[in-house]
Amino acid sequence: MYRLILLLPLLLTLGTGCAVNPVTGKSELSFISEASEIAIGQEQYLPSQQSQGGLYRVDRELTRYVNEVGQRVAAVSDRQLPYEFVVLNNSVPNAWALPGGKIAVNRGLLLKLSSEAELAAVLGHEIVHAAARHGAKSMERGAILQGAILATAIGVSDSDYSNYIVGGAQLGAQLMTHRYGRSAELESDYYGIQYMVKAGYDPRAAISLQETFVKLSEGRESSWLEGLFASHPPSRERVDKNRETVAALAPRLTGDLETGKNRYQQKLAYLKRKNDSYNAFDKANTLASSARLDSALKSLNSAIKGEPGEARFYGLKGDIYLEKKQYREANIYYDKALGLDADYYEYYLGRGLSLSKLGRSRAARQDLKKSNDLLPTAIAMNELGELSLFDGDTKTAKNYFQYAMGAGGETGQTAINQFTKLDLPDNPGKYLAVKPFMDHGRLVAIVGNRTQLNISSFDVTYLVTVNGQTLQRTITSGPIRAGQQLRVNSGFTFREEDNLEYIRATISRANI
C-alpha cells in the first residue's frame, strides 16, 4: 500500500571488521559496509528532502551550479562515492550529509555565503562527514539507531515537520539532525580545507566562513540555532584551527586559487531578488501557526505577487483554507501547487485531507497514498485509517493506525486511541493489567486501565485449583476510566487449611 524504509534487518545482518578510514588513514572497527552506507543514504535521501521543504525548483540553474561546485570538490576527496548535491526550499540556514555522499544545502544558507569558495568550504565539510563515515560511525555506536529505529516516537526537530514522520524515514530525520562531536567537526574542517585547495579554491574562505558563523551564534539568531548550529556547532576553536590549517598550507598556495565571488553573486542574483517574497512566506507561516489566518493570507498574497512560480506559496494557502474548513478553496490552491511541483508530499497530503472532508474518498486515498510514498506521516496514516473504517475494513484501518502510532504528540496519540478501540476486543489483556491476590481468604484482583480511553465494561476470568479441584468464574465489572485501577472481587473465599495449588486471573473481554 505504501513504501516504508525498513533498514533494521539490513543493519543487523552486517558483519564486523577492522578497516582503514579512507580520509584519516586510521584503523577502526567497521560494522556497516560501504554498500550498506550507500544504500542507506539512497533510501533516506528523498524522505529527508521532503521533510525539509522539498527541492528548490524555481531557479533550477542554482541547483545545477551548487552540484557543479560540489562535484568539483568531491572529485578530489579521499573516498569516491556517488555524491549528489541538491538545494532545498527552506529558509533556515542549514546543510547536511547522509551516509554514501547524499548532501543537501538550504537556500537560506546560500543567501548567507559571499563567494563560491565559501560554498566549497560548506560542501567540502559535508563531503568529509560522508567520506570519513561520521554518520555511519554514529549508527554503529547506536547513537542514531537507538533513537530512529528502536524508539518509535521521534521527530525531525522543533519545526513544522516535527512529530509526525513515521516508519523508516525516521532514520533520515535522526541522521540529518544528529549533532556531530567536537572531533568530527574539527576533522571535517581540516580535511575539507585540504579538499578545497586540491579543487583550486582559496582556503581562507573557510576562515571567513567560520568567523561569520561564530558572530551569528553569539548573536543567537534563531534561524541559525535551529539549523546549522544545531548539528554543526561553531566555536572560536574551529576558527583558530582553520587558521592553523591554512597557515600550514601557505607554502603550497598559489595565485591561481579561486574565490569566485563575482560568479557566486551572479548565480545567487535571482534568489536574492526574490528573497522578499520568501520572507513574506516565512511570515505567513508564523502567522498561520498562531492562528492569524487572515493576516497570513495577506502576507502570502504579497509573496505570490513577487514570485508567482513558487509552489510552496500556493501550498500554504491551501493549508490555511483547509484550516478554515473551506475545502473547495483549499483544493484550488493545492492543484496550483501541484501544477508547479508534482513531487512534494505536503500538497498531496493537504489535498487528500480536503477531498476526504468533501466525501471524495477514492480521490482522497490516492493523494494520501502518494503523500506517504514521498514521506510517510502519521497524519496521512490516520486519515487512511479513518477512510478504511468508514468502508468497514477494520483490518486495514488497524494497520494504518499502527504505523501512525510511531509519531509523537497529538497525532500519534490519536492513532494510539483509534488502534486501541479496534484492537481491544481481540486483545483485552494488552490494555488492562490484572493482578490476583488473597485478602483475608477472599480472592480479589486489581485491574488497571493502561489506555487513555474510558472502558465501559470488562470481564475478569478467575481460574483456581484448590484441594485438587479446578474452579473457574467470570466476573463482569466496569466502567474503568483511563489510568484508573479497580478492585474486582472473585466471589471465591478460602479457608486457611485449603490447599491452593494454582491461582490465575485474566481479562477475557473488554469494551470501549
Distance between the termini: 29 Å
Indicate the mean pLDDT: 88
Largest sheet: 3 strands, mixed
- Provide the gyration radius in Å: 28 Å
| Mass-distribution shape | globular
What oligomeric assembly is this protein in? Answer: single chain
- Output the strand order for the largest sheet: 3-5-4
Class by alpha and beta content: alpha+beta
Which residue ranges are poorly predicted, with pLDDT under 50 across at least 5 consecutive positions?
Answer: 1-15, 143-162
Q: Percent range for helical residues? A: 40-55%
How many separate structural domains? Answer: 3
Count of distinct strands: 11
Instruction: Estimate what percentage of residues fall within beta strands.
Output: 15-25%
Individual helix count: 23
Notes on the protein architecture:
The chain is of the alpha+beta class and 512 residues long. The protein has three domains: 8-270, no CATH class; 275-423, Tetratricopeptide repeat domain (Serine Threonine Protein Phosphatase 5, Tetratricopeptide repeat); 428-511, Immunoglobulin-like (Sandwich), CATH 2.60.40. It contains 23 helices and eleven strands. It has a three-stranded mixed sheet, with helices on both faces. A three-stranded antiparallel sheet has the order 6-7-10, with no helix packed on it. A hairpin with a 3-residue loop joins strand 4 (95-98) and strand 5 (102-106). It is globular, with a radius of gyration of 28 Å. Residues 1-15 and 143-162 have low confidence and may be disordered.
